[in-house]
Amino acid sequence: MKKQRLYEEIKRNPKNIRFQRICKVAEAFSFIMRKGKGSHHIFIRPGVEELLNFQNVKGKAKPYQVKQLIKIIEKYGLLEEDE
């Protein structure tokens, strides 16, 4: 299960996730990059009220932003969706 593996990867160590990796994980869960300016990238998904704002800091994602993605995946049950 690809989504399950990605989810477990970011949940295991949210402090050490590369920025490009977190963007790929968000896209795997059907989030779409709405805009990006500078080091910030905004992701949206139909049916999800929250926006995801990822910031690139020296090639890494901020840990609290990774944790926000984890909480949204859990809150909306995105792991249970068909792949």
Computed CA radius of gyration, to the nearest angstrom:
12 Å
Number of strands: 4
Distance from N terminus to C terminus (CA atoms, Å) equals 8 Å
Helix content: 40-55%
CATH superfamily: Hypothetical protein
**Major sheet: size, sense and barrel closure?**
4 strands, antiparallel
Structure description:
This protein has 83 residues and is an alpha+beta fold. It has one domain (2-80): Metal Transport, Frataxin, Chain A. Helices cover 41% and strands 23% of the residues. The chain has helices at residues 2-12, 19-28, 63-75; strands at residues 32-37, 40-44, 52-57, 60-61. It has a four-stranded antiparallel beta sheet. A hairpin with a 2-residue loop joins strand 1 and strand 2 (40-44). The chain is globular and about 35 Å long.
Brief rundown of the structure:
The protein is of the alpha+beta class and 83 residues long.
